[in-house]
Write a structure and sequence with these properties.
heterodimer; A: 113 residues; mainly beta; 7-stranded mixed sheet; 4-stranded antiparallel sheet; 11 strands; B: mainly beta; 6-stranded mixed sheet; 58% strand; globular
Amino acid sequence: DGGITQSPKYLFRKEGQNVTLSCEQNLNHDAMYWYRQDPGQGLRLIYYSQIVNDFQKGDIAEGYSVSREKKESFPLTVTSAQKNPTAFYLCASSPGISGSHAYFGPGTRLLVL
Amino acid sequence: SQQGEEDPQALSIQEGENATMNCSYKTSINNLQWYRQNSGRGLVHLILIRSNEREKHSGRLRVTLDTSKKSSSLLITASRAADTASYFCATGATSGTYKYIFGTGTRLKVLA
């Protein structure tokens, strides 16, 4: 059963704490993405990676960090520098070729205690 | 920065009516895609139209693309209550980076 999984579904962060959101795909896709969605809003690109061991900042990378050590995994760390982290986080992947579309995971909702 | 802007922001129609939503974008594109998002869920890809295409159909969906006006429209015919969702357009860049830039979305409510 191919697809993208994100965990956990809900995550609570205490002030000053770093938290890591997991994203795994078994679609053999080269490209992976992290988006942030605020209530009633569109998706904003945080980071993306087109190949293993390489990633680029999106429009709102400040306060976030990523790694891409394996093709199937692209974890996102929300650091304490991100002052307003409460949002819905969506991970996606794509074959990374012209004319392809994105496949999305179910999302992780991050809440601040 | 948001590439696409959907219009209207919200739309409420009766079951059986058609729903039309529009998307405008700013830069040259390789293709334009439409996605659906049910509340609290991930996005699901609906249809992709390439920059050299003007119209595309998939079931009850019809997408048009006007690259001269940098705009696209999504028509859902004979809408059903199950079509209630948010709909987003996304653009695929012409450069070598395969990232997707999403619009702000249209929230569609279909009343039974």
